Model the fold of this input.
Amino acid sequence: MIKIRHSVFMVLSVSLWVFLLSSGAAGDDVSHRGGPGRKYVKPADEILKKLLTPLQYRVTQEEATERAFDNEYWNNKEEGIYVDRVSGEPLFSSTDKFASGTGWPSFSRPLEPDNILEKEDNSFFMRRVEVRSRHGDSHLGHLFDDGPEPTGLRYCINSASLRFVPVRDLIKEGYGDYLVLFENMTTMDESRDHGISGTMMKTKEGL
Done:
């Protein structure tokens, strides 16, 4: 009887969480919606296992690495922002995305530095800097010092740790404060007509 009640509780919890993520009914407490000043929360592990794909779970929760050139956003040239797959906190912008040739999404700087944590990583007999999200505590990728100027940094990030929010959906999903980043940019239709997309992509070879 206890097992049945627990199963029913889990089903209802996951259903409620999925509803909140899609509807925004919980306002500031909904992880996948919001902008600056919003609260971002990490769902319980049992809920994460239901919401995330096996790959997304392994990458964000177990520090796995997805395959290069075989992931969702490595070649994404659409304008918008990238938020944490688990918590929804804003992490990176397409305005800072560049063609690194590595097969993973690469950014020269974070959109919200306070949402990024750096941690020493000595795994695989290498010394690297791991990048994690502050509120979701998701493994995102690694930070390298071979990026473009002016930062000289390359945030090499797993697509599985990210969720892309296109410019057209920023207001609807509660990230309207970031529209200012794209006010003076060429529209997506014009970009396609000229074979370009993305602020940095316009000056660098596309992935």
Observations:
- The chain has one domain: 2-193.
